[in-house]
Each structure stands twice: as C-alpha cells, then as structure tokens.
Amino acid sequence: MSLGCLGERMAERYLIKKGYRILKKNFRCMMGEIDIIAMDGTELVFIEVKTRKNQNYGLPCEAINAEKIRHIKRTAAYYTMVSGEDYQDIRLDVIEILITKGQTWLHHIENITG
User: Fold this and answer.
1) Which CATH code fits 3-109?
2) CA–CA gap between residue 8 and residue 25 (Å, rounded)
3) pLDDT tens readout for residues 20-42
4) Which of 66, 70, 95 is nearest to 4 (CA)?
5) Sign of the Cα pseudo-torsion (17, 72, 54, 25, in order)
6) Which strands make up the sheet holding 21-29, listed edge to edge?
7) What is this structure's pTM?
8) Whose C-alpha in 11, 30, 64, 91 is 20 to 30 A from the C-alpha of 109?
9) C-alpha distances in angstroms, 10 versus 39, 82, 96, 106, 107?
10) Domain boundaries in the chain?
C-alpha cells in the first residue's frame, strides 16, 4: 500500500471516530481530486490528506499552497453542482499525517480558507 493510501485510510478512521459521515473518497473530475468528502453534522467538508515520512520538505500541511486551494475549491464547486444537494455550510480541511521512527502524528486543520 502506498504512503498516500495509508494516510487516507488513517484519516478516514479518525474522521469516523469523530462522528463524520464519509460520502466519497478520491473524488476525481476534470477540475481535480479531493481525497475525502464527508459530512460533519450538517456541514459538507472537503478534506485534503497529506502524509509524509519525514520533514525534509517541511510539515505535510505546508504542501497546501494557494494553487492547491484553488484546485480544491473548483473541484468542490463541481461536486456540489453535480450532487444535486443544496449544501448550506461547506468548509475545506486538511489532515496532515507524519509517520516517522515508528510514531504516527495526525493533525486535523479545520476550515483552511477561513
């Protein structure tokens, strides 16, 4: 299993334990890809999962730049359009996972756009 798949599975288990309802995993369209789409109560949440084995290039969340956020927003807009649902509350989250020296560190950053 790839590191990315492992991280996404860990993130999914974490979200389910927190009471989220998973709607889609690895949603892809011409606009881009979203790792996990879930409901947190009445809020629709688009979640980007970043997993790393070391900090050579910084923390996993530091890979989420303005361009990546634009892609996520476009993909999220497309998903909401084709879903046929009327979602009132929407947010973008990041789950960063660092697996190093036999330890796993998971950090959930809610509402990255503010």
Assistant:
1) 3.40.1350.10
2) 9
3) 999 999 999 998 999 999 999 99
4) 95
5) positive
6) 21-29, 32-40, 43-52, 89-100, 103-109
7) 0.91
8) 30
9) 17, 28, 10, 9, 11
10) 3-109
